[in-house]
Amino acid sequence: MKTVLTNKNISIRTRRRALECYIEPILMYGCEAWTISKQTQKKLEATEMWFLRRMLRISWTAKKTNDTVLEEAHTTRLLISKIRKRQATFFGHVMRREKLENLVTTGMLEGKRSRGKQREKLIEGLADWLKAGKSLEAIEATKDRKKWRTMIANAVKQGT
Fold it and tell me: 54, 121 in Cβ contact below 8 A?
């Protein structure tokens, strides 16, 4: 795909669409179950910028900011919001089923907690992104499909 994505004879819009069709699905495989920490988010944003810089043939030593690269590509950062949207739709699906997946996803299993700092749960990251306040509010919102979809749409509009 390198020859197609770096070809200057093809418009940037077409190259961007090729990136979205062929490479982003590979990158985002299984992202519905990821917990995205700040460090992971930075790495994903850096990967997205790396793709854009390669498409525009901008060397990493060139003193161009990410904002100028985004302007040249006529785009914005979309990868994180796409991942979060996928996570939210998957989470809503799992929560409406009310089976074993529900218990595993929410982390409400019986037993003692492990020692040390507790791992971040998927629901906590989604509640922050959806601006739902507490994770219980997000869980309750999944029961009403229309409300859940509007929450996701509003979060996507606002970005990350």
Answer: no
Please give the Cα distance from 130 to 88 (Å, whole number): 9
Question: At how many degrees (to 10) do helices 122-130 and 79-97 cross?
Answer: 120
- Report DSSP state, residue 21: I
- Taking each helix axis as running N to C, give the angle between helix 66-73 and helix 38-55, from 0 to 180 degrees, rounded to the nearest 10: 50
Phi/psi-derived region of residue 98, left when phi > 0, alpha when psi is between -120 and 50, beta in every other case: left
Tokens matching residue 46: 């850096």
> In this predicted model, what pLDDT tens digit does every residue of 76-121 receive, in sequence order?
999 999 998 998 888 888 888 877 776 666 666 677 777 887 777 7
